């Protein structure tokens, strides 16, 4: 990939314990060339009314499985799902290997999940199976009757102390 007049598309990323989600935002990309290896991704394609050349190359923080890569192309972007080489490993602190900030690479918060949210998935129910719908006024008529009886009881007690 030559560096002559190559623009960088916006690249968004998110992750789970075993997968990476990468979105390359290029509109109406013609002839996209995406190369995914164990430790690197490269992209090149023409986009926009002037058919400007877009491209980038990133070295991954850790290895992935390129043979399981999935790709979906829409008129607005290219979406990739990449499987991490080590299953159930820790979350990566960043997508790229080096710590240098890359201006076109951003976190995709619409797909982001924290590590603890990922672990809770399928875990025990924190509510203990209790139904909380009654607490917001969506309960049965018996709750309303009980509340009415309680109110009458309080009024009788108050009247007893007053007289």
TrEMBL record:
Write down the CDD domains for this protein, in alphabetical order.
Answer: p23_hB-ind1_like
InterPro entries from the UniProt entry:
CS_dom, HSP20-like_chaperone, p23-like
- Spell out the GO cellular component terms annotated for this protein, sorted alphabetically and separated by semicolons: cytosol; nucleus
**One GO MF term:** Hsp90 protein binding
The CS domain covers which part of the protein?
Answer: 6-96
One Pfam annotation reads CS
Q: TM spans, by residue?
A: 143-162
Keywords for this protein = Membrane, Transmembrane, Transmembrane helix
> From its record, what is one biological process in GO terms?
protein folding
Using the UniProt annotation, give all residue ranges assigned to the region (Disordered).
113-134
- Report the sequence similarity comment from the record: Belongs to the p23/wos2 family.
Question: By what name is this protein known?
Answer: Sba1p
* Source organism of this protein record: Rhizophagus irregularis (strain DAOM 197198w)
